[in-house]
Inverse folding.
């Protein structure tokens, strides 16, 4: 009986060793590099900075090794697609939750600014753009060597408040601000009904008079109702229409 138990134990050990050898033989450095390259290629157009692309690819490789110890050839194509999708989504979520990079690059700055700009579409696009620029510049001061994780909530809140205070003093005139203000004005019901040429002329007049009224920028980032009425009185629709006839 003891002899049988001994033989059974030996068989289990040998079987485990064979499986381990098979796993090791599949996941060679060359094989692992090939899987890494596939994930890296996928991430190239989706992730902006090099370091984060690398972290994403490494994450995917590690999860692939865990879920497919015998290699990607050990499952059907359908199963592989399902597993790969699960891995990619999981790693994308992990990486997205962590702003990980060792140094600041133009690509990273652009990526972060876009995140800030797209954060709240209800705000003026020019304001959001300037807010994003302000936030990134302040982050570079606090984290000169890059980030090794997400920005703490309290830091993000403090930065947001600080930038808001600076910007709300007067939203400086830029081509983007003019375009945004013009677009908002053009979409007003009474303006949208006008013929294109008349609408364009009225909008240009509105922008011109607004800049004269607020030469140093828009206080609080918007034109108040009372000021807007005053500006429109300086852009009489009838005269504008007559000038275009």
């Amino acid at each position: 009986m003891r002899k049988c138990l001994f033989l059974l134990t030996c068989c289990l050990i040998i079987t485990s060793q064979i499986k381990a050898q098979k796993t090791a033989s599949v996941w060679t450095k060359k094989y692992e590099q090939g899987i890494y390259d596939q994930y890296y290629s996928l991430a190239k157009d989706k992730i902006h900075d090099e370091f984060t692309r690398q972290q994403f690819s490494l994450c995917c490789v590690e999860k692939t090794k865990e879920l497919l110890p015998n290699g990607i050839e050990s499952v059907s194509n359908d199963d592989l697609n399902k597993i790969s999708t699960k891995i990619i989504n999981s790693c994308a979520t992990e990486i997205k939750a962590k702003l990980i990079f060792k140094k600041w690059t133009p690509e990273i700055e652009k990526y972060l600014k876009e995140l800030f700009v797209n954060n709240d579409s209800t705000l003026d696009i020019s304001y959001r753009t300037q807010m994003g620029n302000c936030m990134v510049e302040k982050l570079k001061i606090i984290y000169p060597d890059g980030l090794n994780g997400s920005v703490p909530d309290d830091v993000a809140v403090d930065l947001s408040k600080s930038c808001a205070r600076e910007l709300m003093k007067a939203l400086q005139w830029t081509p983007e601000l003019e375009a945004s203000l013009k677009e908002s004005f053009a979409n007003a019901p009474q303006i949208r009904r006008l013929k294109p040429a008349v609408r364009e002329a009225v909008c240009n007049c509105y922008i011109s008079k607004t800049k004269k009224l607020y030469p140093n920028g828009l206080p609080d980032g918007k034109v108040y109702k009372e000021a807007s009425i005053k500006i429109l009185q300086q852009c009489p629709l009838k005269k504008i229409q007559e000038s275009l006839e």
User: Anything to note?
Assistant: The first strand starts at residue 100 and ends at 101. Residues 1-23 have pLDDT under 50 and may be disordered.
